[in-house]
Each structure stands twice: as structure tokens, then as C-alpha cells.
Amino acid sequence: MSQFKICAFSGSLRQKSFNTALLHAAQQVAPAGVSIEIAEIGDLPLYNEDLRVDGSFPASVQRVRDQIAKSDALLFASPEYNYSMSGPLKNAIDWVSRGPNQPCDGKAFAVIGVATGLLGTARGQWHLRQSMVSLNGFGVNTPQIYINNAAQKFDAELRYTDEAGRDLLRQLIEALVKLGTKLKA
Ligand SMILES: Cc1cc2nc3c(=O)[nH]c(=O)nc-3n(C[C@H](O)[C@H](O)[C@H](O)COP(=O)(O)O)c2cc1C
Question: Given ligand 1 and candidates 12, 116, 128, 147, which is best to mutate, with the most ligand atoms within 8 Å of its CB?
């Protein structure tokens, strides 16, 4: 069986991001035959239609679009910023949402997130899901992963240490692979 490729996005650009750390945990628990590559979005310009010269996207945007196009499914981990997904992630989604050949069209996606507060990115995740509906993505509905009180779930080296949480993360990746495989059939 060929490798199932997941293109992942962290909504946080900071070095010690819990959300990026959660994606690293996802890479560790992913079943055999599943690869998770984290796409860089920190170098994307702020969305501006004027930057599309002769219809071409800026090189960094094209790179991300190509990464998505080559993947079998998408995985988003975003902090909640003021009850929504982070600005950098929304910017990336806006860039990839434009035609032609919109790369998220018909693609499976899953959303996870970790917050230092109590609600574990629940509100932000719903905004992100809405935006992905606009791109005709198909979201995994269960399990849902809302990680709160980040400082208690990650150690000093930013390893996700919650065993039950790691198991749920593995289940989510399996659900994403299942949905992605179905959509491609
Ligand atoms: C601009 C900003 C807005 C935030 N708004 C929220 C929020 O609405 N809800 C929440 O739970 N945490 C909020 N936080 C706190 C984040 O959950 C916390 O900073 C988290 O660690 C960010 O994720 P990261 O570690 O991946 O960077 C906010 C943080 C920032 C910087």
C-alpha cells in the first residue's frame, strides 16, 4: 500500500508553540504507512490580490498550494485567538482558497487544538471548520480534540504527555485516513 500523506498546519508561528508540539505528537502516534508533513505558513505575505501578477501566486503561496495538492488529507492545529482561528492560519486558508485548481476542494481534513485556557480552542475550531466548508473540505466529526490547560499536558521539552490524549490523537488520525481514503475512491 502506498503511503497516505497528511499535510499539517500549525496556526502558531512561535518557536515553543503547544499547537506545533501537538502536531509533533501526531507525527509520533501516526500509524505505519501515514506521513505527516508540517507546512510552513510564516513566510506567506498578507493576502493581497495585487500580489497575483499575471494570475500567478507568490512563490511561498504556490509552495503551500502544491503541498496540499500532493497530500491525501489535511490536519490543522490552531490556537484560539480571540475566539477564532489564528490570523496566520486564516491568511493561509484565504490564499489557498482562490482558483484555479483550489487544492482543498473535496479533501478530507481534521482539526485539533490546544489552549492554555479552559475551553481548549473549541470556539476557534468551529470557525476553522466553517472556513473549510467554504473550500469544500470534508471534516472528520469524531473524535473531537480540545486540549485545555496546556501547561499540564506538555512537559518542559514540549512532549504531549497525556496518554489518553495521545490515544485519542491516534484515533483521530485513523479517522482522517479512513475519510480521506473514502473520498479518493
Ligand atoms: C492574540 C491572542 C489571543 C488569544 N485568545 C485566546 C482565546 O480566545 N481563547 C483561548 O483559549 N486562548 C486564547 N489565547 C491564549 C492561547 O490559548 C495561548 O497563548 C496558546 O498557548 C497559544 O497557542 P501556542 O502555544 O500554539 O502558540 C490567546 C493568545 C493570543 C496571543
Answer: 116
pTM here? 0.98
Whole-number average pLDDT of the chain: 97
Q: How far is the CA of 82 from the centre of ligand 1 (A)?
A: 7
Give the residue from 68, 54, 172, 152 showing the smallest Cα distance to 110. 172
The whole-number pLDDT of residue 130 equals: 98
Q: What is the pLDDT of residues 66-87, one digit of tens each?
A: 999 999 999 999 999 999 999 9
Indicate whether 35 pLDDT > 90: yes
CATH tag, 4-184: 3.40.50.360
Measuring from each residue's beta carbon to the nearest atom of ligand 1, which residues come in under 6 Å?
A: 12, 14, 17-19, 79-83, 115-117, 119, 150
User: What SS3 state is found at 5?
Assistant: strand
Question: Domain boundaries in the chain?
Answer: 4-184
Element (H, E) at 152: helix 150-153
